[in-house]
Amino acid sequence: MPATRFDRDTDVRSRGDGVFEGRIDRGWWIERGPNGGYVAALVLQALAGAVDDPDRSPRSLTVHYLAPPREGPVRVETAIERQGRSLTFVSGRLSQDDRLLATAVAAFAIPMPGPTFSDIAMPDAVPLDRAEPLRLPAGTVPMRDRYESRWAVGHPPFSGAPQAVAGGWIRLVEPRPVDAPVVTALTDAWMPPVFSRFSEPMAVPTVDLTVHFRTALPHPGMADDDFCLTVFRSQVAAGGFIEEDGEVWSPDGVLLAHSRQLAVLLPVG
Question: 9's torsion region: left (phi>0), alpha (psi -120 to 50) or beta?
């Protein structure tokens, strides 16, 4: 049996012909359904199973969320769209009781030589040993109980801040290697940064999520119980939609992933 709850709740089993079966668990619920990062991590497990090549790591993943899943069994139908000498392109369709819930595309590749540079730096943040734990009443948002989080970037939610920037140190409650599925989940595990700009609650359901993996995972400089530093920014709200750009960093300053998602802004109540 998989070692941690994250492993169990994102586990998929091959049924042949590119079909994988898994289960959506209520422990990852946020509002009307499961957290999008959790769903993307489960889908990524199926796509990786379809590629079935340990030398080809995920480089890009995009998931479009058509409808929120219910708790219970799900099915991921995958297809290898193209496989070359270096790159494999794969797609997937997540469904439940013949109801299509999400579509996904991903690129997997072997490491390739080429020039390297980085003009992006780890954001200024409250150091881990001084960051305050993010505390919410137990059970109010079940997904929050899956992570240990410490606020370190930006203003608190619903504080009317001038910018929508938020983030902090985060890790799974149960230690495990910070691999591509975990990093995928982390790109959607923090509270939306737009909450900092509002003075009243809003619902922010995700339309699509894209993750670009920027280094080999698990990062060799990380222990299983290390925190990652995540930071998220939103700069434009228009027509009822808002974007969110994210970064996931190792504690030693290596960029693990970039993310971008589009979400709908909905008043609560």
Answer: alpha
Rounded Cα distance between 235 and 7, Å, is 34
Q: In 3-state terms, what secondary structure has residue 50? A: helix
At residue 188, the 3 state secondary structure works out as coil
Query: At CA 74, angle to CA 68 and CA 76, rounded to 5?
Result: 100
pLDDT, position 6: 98
Name the residue among 101, 91, 171, 163 with its Cα closest to residue 131.
171
Q: Find, among 23, 17, 50, 19, the residue nearest to 39 by Cα.
A: 23
The C-alpha atoms of residue 168 and residue 133 are separated, in whole angstroms, by 10
H-helix or E-strand spanning residue 183: helix 180-186
Alpha carbons 164 and 265: distance in angstroms, whole number: 14
What's the DSSP call for residue 131? P
Distance CA 263, CA 269 (A): 18
Q: What is the pLDDT of residue 2?
A: 67
How far apart CA 69 and CA 75 sit, in angstroms, is 11
3-state helix, strand, coil in the chain (%, to 5): 15, 40, 40
171 has pLDDT over 90: yes
Which tens digit of pLDDT belongs to each residue from 201-234? 888 999 999 999 999 999 998 999 999 999 999 9
Per-residue exposure over 104-125, b if at least 16 CB sit within 10 Å of its own CB, e if not: bbbbbbeeeeeeeeeeeeebeb
Answer for the pair 259, 238: CB distance below 8 angstroms, yes or no. Answer: no
Residue 72 φ/ψ, nearest 5 degrees: 130, -170
Task: Say if residues 125 and 229 touch (Cβ distance below 8 Å).
Answer: yes
